[in-house]
Design a protein that fits this description.
The chain has one domain: OB fold (Dihydrolipoamide Acetyltransferase, E2P). A five-stranded mixed beta barrel has the order 1-2-3-5-4. It has 92 residues and is mainly β. 13% of the residues lie in helices and 39% in strands.
Length: 92
């Protein structure tokens, strides 16, 4: 039996829940509970309320999903046109 295709959706994190779970409002207005995918956990990608994310969902259960990508923050790049500087608070 072949693996079922996952459905990608984009949305906005509206609430951070315990155990690395998030309440995400999809662009369609539907609210789902999503957990952090393996690559995001492995690379320690932090997700906060207000972040734009991509959620993969199974066609069988459209109430739960998996966060697979956190989009870059446009607000921090808007002022300078480039991402924020890294290492600006180094010890001397």
């Amino acid at each position: 039996m072949a693996k079922e295709e996952l459905l990608p959706f984009e949305g906005l994190v509206i609430e951070v829940l315990p155990d690395a779970r998030f309440r995400v409002e999809l662009d369609s207005g539907h609210t789902v509970i999503a957990y952090t995918a393996g690559k995001m956990k492995k690379n320690r990608i932090k997700t906060l309320a207000g972040d734009r994310v991509t959620v993969e969902m199974s066609p069988y259960d459209l109430d739960k999903g998996r966060l697979v990508f956190r989009h870059k923050d446009e607000r921090s790049m808007a002022a300078t046109g480039r991402p924020p500087a890294r290492g600006q608070f180094k010890r001397r």
